Amino acid sequence: MRTPQEIQQMQDGVVGELLELRRRVKEQEQMLNRPAVRGEWEKTEGFDEYGGGRYVEWTCSVCFSKAKGGWAVRDKHIDEPPCWNYCPNCGADMREES
């Protein structure tokens, strides 16, 4: 049989966990209700001085990080923006508005 102090400690622990869960749910709701940050993939192209080949870089318009991936290696895909819906660095929404 448990003592009244043990029961009280168990109840306090459960209440504390519920309060923490409630705080986390509210935090998630606030994040979901924030307006989405929209960005675009900006294209920069030129010619490599050393190799003489054409290059294309895609940069996030929000955080200016360069997209990395294998699409620029294949010439048939070099002019297509990255296929990501979100910037992997800052999370900006890169989908076209409909």
Structure description:
- Helix content is 30%, strand content 14%.
- The protein is of the alpha+beta class.
- The protein has two domains: 1-34; 37-98, no CATH class.
- It has a two-stranded antiparallel ribbon.
- It is elongated and about 80 Å long.
Terminal CA distance:
64 Å
Share in β-strands: 5-15%
- Computed over alpha carbons, the radius of gyration is 25 Å
Describe the global form. elongated
User: What is the SS-derived class?
Assistant: alpha+beta
Q: Report the major sheet.
A: 2 strands, antiparallel
Walk across the major sheet and give the strand order. Answer: 1-2
Number of helices: 1
Please mark out the parts with pLDDT under 50 across 5 or more consecutive residues, or reply none: 69-74
Q: How many runs of DSSP E, i.e. beta strands? A: 2
How would you spell out the order of helices and strands?
HEE
